[in-house]
Write a structure and sequence with these properties.
Layout: H1 6-21, E1 24-25, H2 31-40, H3 45-56, H4 71-80, E2 81-82, E3 87-93, E4 99-104, E5 110-118, E6 121-125, E7 129-130, H5 140-143, E8 148-149, H6 152-166, E9 172-175, H7 185-196, E10 208-212, H8 216-224, E11 230-234, H9 240-246, H10 255-268, E12 272-278, H11 286-295, E13 301-307, H12 321-331, E14 337-340, H13 357-363
Parallel strand pairs: 1-2, 6-9, 9-10, 10-11, 11-12, 12-13, 13-14
Antiparallel strand pairs: 3-4, 4-5, 5-6, 7-8
Helix pairs in contact: 2-3, 6-7, 8-10, 11-12
The structure holds iron/sulfur cluster.
Length: 364
């Protein structure tokens, strides 16, 4: 039997203390519920805004730091509430400057995010679930056992901690880390609300991208929601049979309907991006390129080609540069703008579909 480390013992003691004191984590409250909570405590709405700003903009982890709130009320808050979020565990930096963060949740689970600085653009790729229930065949995250959905504050905490840690204003957030954001839609929307609030992280919704493998119900909700975020669809396979085989949920989310909503999203909200991860001998031939062009012919969109990031746990390979070049050149005949994504952070497994699995699987 293992004896618990000091760190785990501290965590256990703090959990037991909070349970005994019945203290609730105030970070779980979004702004509106926080205003309601303050009203029940006989406080004004602006008090909720002050607390929200202290937590999300000024990185307060203790009520004592909230110096524009009376000492008596701060003491009363700390008797009833805690401020608990993700804990940074490790940061790995790649040669190209991208950084992979490993965080621990309060229930001792692990989640990863990637910071990608590119000139003025400072992007954080965040996770929305621990593991992923979709289990795409080519994705290392899909190999992990799905554990649970992340809460809004745990999703927002990833960008907040990276911003604080790197002392850099995060300009963009992409929901492309571990998990399928549209299978955890309400918490994802909650995180967008915290991220984009002027008293939160102040990251524009227009610089926020939600990526999905094509979950119809979530796409419809996002289409009709009052959010101005961008939508990226991980299409990856133009051949529906291969797609159904590689992405298990695709069978219940037919391509025709996915493309219809994508068209509507481009028309009414913002231009959709189709992500296409190129995998050697699976979807990298010229006939796949032809199929892709014909499939998307009526849809105003961007197409982003992403050469597969190889992962030690996965059997799939990146196509040769020549194959990638041929495919890309054929796509230039399409009406859409086509980009070929540079690989970032390859040596630290920071690519799309590579998050967390390596750490967790290695531990077993
Ligand atoms: S590609 Fe995305 S949806 Fe598919 S298993 Fe990986 S994280 Fe989940």
């Amino acid at each position: 039997m293992h004896s618990p480390s000091t760190e785990n013992l501290d965590l256990l003691c703090s959990v037991l203390y909070n349970v005994a004191m019945r203290r609730r984590n105030i970070k779980r409250f979004r702004l509106e519920p926080l205003c309601e909570l303050m009203a029940t405590l006989g406080q004004n709405t602006y008090r909720a805004e002050q607390i929200f700003q202290w937590i999300w903009q000024k990185n307060a982890t203790d009520f004592a730091a909230m110096t524009n709130i009376s000492k008596a009320f701060r003491n009363s808050l700390s008797q009833k509430f805690t401020i608990q979020g993700l804990q940074k565990r490790t940061v790995k930096t790649a040669h190209d400057g991208s950084q992979k963060y490993l965080f621990r949740t309060n229930d001792s689970k692990y989640v990863e995010s990637v910071f990608i600085p590119e000139g003025k653009r400072k992007t954080v790729c965040v996770s929305t679930q621990i593991g992923c229930p979709v289990q795409c065949a080519f994705c290392a995250t899909g190999r992990m056992k799905f554990s649970r959905n992340l809460r809004a504050h745990e999703i927002a905490d990833q960008a907040r901690i990276v911003q604080h840690d790197t002392n850099t204003k995060v300009t963009n957030v992409v929901f492309m880390g571990m998990g399928e954001p549209l299978l955890n839609l309400q918490e994802t929307l909650g995180a967008i609300e915290i991220n984009s609030s002027p008293i939160g992280l102040s990251i524009s919704q227009r610089h926020t991208t939600v990526s999905t493998v094509g979950i119809l119900q979530g796409m419809r909700t996002l289409l009709n929601a009052p959010f101005k975020v961008k939508l990226a669809i991980s299409l990856n396979f133009a051949d529906e049979n291969v797609r159904n085989e590689m992405i298990p949920v695709a069978k219940n989310n037919p391509l025709k309907e996915v493309l219809q909503i994508a068209k509507e999203y481009s028309r009414t909200k913002s231009m959709v991006t189709f992500e296409y991860v190129m995998i050697k001998n699976l979807n990298d031939r010229l006939r796949d390129a032809r199929l892709l062009v014909s499939l998307l012919k009526d849809i105003p969109a961007k197409i982003n080609l992403i050469p597969y990031n190889e992962h030690p746990l996965m059997p799939y390979k990146r196509p040769s540069d020549e194959r990638i070049g041929q495919f890309y050149n054929y796509l230039l005949t399409a009406p859409q703008t086509v980009t070929l994504r540079k690989s970032r952070g390859q040596e630290i497994q920071a690519g799309c579909g590579q998050l967390a699995a390596f750490h967790v699987v290695k531990k077993k």
